[in-house]
């Protein structure tokens, strides 16, 4: 299959009977040669690709892996790579079907599907010979990686494309003055929590126990599913991990999205953590903008937890054990691609609601802070947007974690009004000293919370706009990053470029996503500017939106041009106030 990531709004509308659309993607080929050696893991492949393509290099592209190296990677190893393809902005990522896929399907009780897939593999599910022979003719871009020479990587902080080969990490840490002490090592979540991953982690734990080592930092492991948890518990992994000082958490997102109690550092205190997660944007893992989160393979994270230092290289450095002896790790061995005894068959049972003739009434307590029934957004009034204040000029990276941070806020995800208090709380504003704050045009006060300013504007019937930089809205697909701005009065987001899913989410909520025709026009926006968007009645696919900037500081005006990617249907969404309004009325 081709599995394409979507936002929550997309998913809910399709479940309700609508359809899904996506921009026709280009193809990027990643030719893998050789096979992984030593400490190198599937995680290191995607970390290398992130370095080569950057966080926006895969936008509106499908990334297809092929070559002999692809056939050397397990099914869950391939899943690690394709999962993290979202960090490149990729529409999706693909691997050919092979014997690893067959093995995984069989052990997960899908033998008939495995038989069918194997039967049609040669014709349908493997790379065509002509593509292997001459990939440049079939891909818009081709990357070649020799897995035999690939070194383990650690990436970060603050972005998954800031790459450091493990042999260079200590040098880079000293040069860039990263805090050397590791305050936490975190393994698992959705990206690296397969049985194979955890078996390599457990091999490192066994070595540490035999060598007389204990973890030197907080070590938490998140299994990827109930089935994985039950399987590793059955096979003794949990007991062994706990014996060397690890904490095995419930199968949930956990620390990856900030859901853990962190009391070892104060907010604003610079510190380093190392994870095997897929995202490491500021504030994501713990709400602290000064936490420098680095990403590596599960086995590398595990080994480094016994040093507690970002400067430790487990491939060559030694550690002192409880007897004062110098000891070293060996290459993790014995990784099981699938559990030798199969996966545990213990399962959580889910029950369907009863079939009823009468419509079901949803009742939410009026004082609930967890749930809120949504009301339709208002229709466009058919008029141009005249002199809307600029709420925020996002400077540099502005991900969905900056726009709508997770962590403790997730308890409000069913209550749009409550969760909107976090809107832009992590955004770096070019016009403010503190993240999440801005200039209030109404009372001329500086450094006020952006959500509060937006609420005030909205209470006076004022819309507002956001200005963004490159790849605005990258990261998690969370729809609150579009719903909260819409709820609090955002009319348009004008940027140098968008991340794919966030641009779609804005369209679905009735917010105009626009890009500068001339990217340098971003620099023209000042702190007290008002934006007018003109000729909206003639909005059509491929049309140019005229924009007038009113500089209130010197009473001057200037015109610029903006592009959009709206289709005729998207324009109907805008006019109706949202995609759901269109769907509900049609």
Fold and architecture overview:
The chain has three domains: 8-149, 3-Layer(aba) Sandwich (Aconitase, Domain 2), CATH 3.40.1060.10; 153-318, Aconitase, domain 3 (2-Layer Sandwich); 385-585, Aconitase, domain 4, CATH 3.20.19.10. Helix content is 27%, strand content 18%. It is built from 18 helices and 22 strands. Strand 21 and strand 22 (556-563) form a beta hairpin. Helix 4 (99-107) packs antiparallel against helix 5 (111-125). It is globular and about 70 Å long. The protein starts with 7 loop residues before the first helix and ends with a helix. The model has no long low-confidence stretch (mean pLDDT 92).
What does this entry show, briefly?
This protein is an alpha/beta fold. 27% of the residues lie in helices and 18% in strands. It has three domains: 8-149, Aconitase, Domain 2, CATH 3.40.1060.10; 153-318, Aconitase, domain 3, CATH 3.30.499.10; 385-585, Aconitase, domain 4 (Alpha-Beta Barrel), CATH 3.20.19.10.
Q: Considering the protein shown, what is the CATH homologous superfamily of the largest domain?
A: Aconitase, domain 4
CATH architectural type of the largest domain: Alpha-Beta Barrel
Give the CA-based shape.
Answer: globular
Helix-and-strand structural type: alpha/beta
Q: According to CATH, what is the class of the largest domain?
A: Alpha Beta
| Beta-strand fraction estimate | 15-25%
Largest sheet, described in full? 7 strands, mixed, barrel
Q: Overall mean pLDDT score?
A: 92
The tally of structural domains comes to 3
Q: Tally the beta strands.
A: 22
How far apart are the first and last residues' alpha carbons, in Å?
31 Å
The order of strands across the largest sheet is 14-17-18-19-22-21-20
